[in-house]
Design brief:
The protein is α+β, with helices and mostly antiparallel strands and 227 residues long. It has a single domain, classed as Jelly Rolls. The chain is built from two helices and 13 strands; from the N terminus they run H-E-E-E-E-E-E-E-E-E-E-E-E-E-H. Strands 1, 2, 4, 9, 10, 11 and 13 form a seven-stranded antiparallel β-sheet that branches. It has a six-stranded antiparallel β-sheet with strand order 3-12-5-6-7-8, with no helix packed on it. The protein is globular, with a radius of gyration of 19 Å. 33% of the residues are buried. Keywords: Membrane, Transmembrane, Transmembrane helix.
């Protein structure tokens, strides 16, 4: 291969690599954590999340995950991190999902320029898979449980985003499991949420015995809306 040919080949490789990584970073959705992972195991994502797409309504982004709480009494008295977009000290959260300190509830927190918004999700059963979606724009957050809208919460101010990474199970996390944690740089619509909730959590096949047979996560008769 002569020098000219080598230069041309190298240039082509560089161009292909450039567009490949450019497209990767600009992907509208990012899988942060795929297979089922122990809720007590902290994972810090090393993936740079693309900025939100400024849709007609303004900024918009969403998170989705499967989760299961086995024991609500674990680390009783402390809020347990499921995942957070922000530093480990939780000084910034946009957003964050917690298991409540003293009840069988989940807590959603979101930094805004007017302070931290807190939204409870009550009456969560133990040992049942739950699909959670947080769809956020600059005026509101829609919380979906198992593909259904749980609450439309109007924000007091614009979300205050941060440039930190996404972390799961900070400081001991929670007693349970998390899977299929994804970020979307746009607002998920009801049809998108239903499609995501129809996909079961993926077992971790690297773990001995996997996770066994998954429970009937599609049956939501055990969960009633808490207002």
């Amino acid at each position: 291969m002569d020098i000219v040919t080598s230069i041309v080949v190298a240039a082509v490789v560089i161009v292909i690599a450039f567009f490949y990584f450019k497209n990767q970073s600009n992907s509208p959705n990012i899988t942060i954590q795929s297979s089922i992972t122990d809720g007590k195991k902290q994972v810090n994502s090393n993936i740079a999340l693309p900025n939100s797409v400024n849709q007609k309504e303004g900024m918009a982004f969403s998170y989705a995950c499967w989760m299961k709480v086995d024991d609500f009494s674990y680390r009783y008295g402390k809020q347990k991190v499921v995942f957070t977009k922000g530093p480990e000290d939780l000084s910034s959260m946009c957003p964050a999902l917690f298991v409540d300190a003293n009840t069988n509830s989940l807590i959603v927190k979101l930094d805004t320029f007017g302070g931290v918004e807190t939204i409870p999700i009550g009456n969560i059963p133990a040992k049942k898979w739950l699909h959670v979606v947080l769809a956020i724009d600059q005026e509101s957050i829609d919380i979906y449980i198992n593909g259904k809208l749980y609450e439309h919460h109007t924000l007091s101010n614009i979300p205050k985003q941060n440039s930190d990474t996404v972390r799961t199970s900070v400081d001991g996390g929670f007693d349970g499991s998390i899977a299929s944690l994804e970020y979307f740089n746009y607002l998920l619509k009801p049809a998108d949420v239903s499609a995501l909730a129809a996909k079961p959590p993926v077992p971790d096949m690297t773990v001995k015995d996997g996770v066994g047979t998954l429970p009937p996560y599609f049956d939501i008769s055990w969960w009633t809306r808490h207002k």
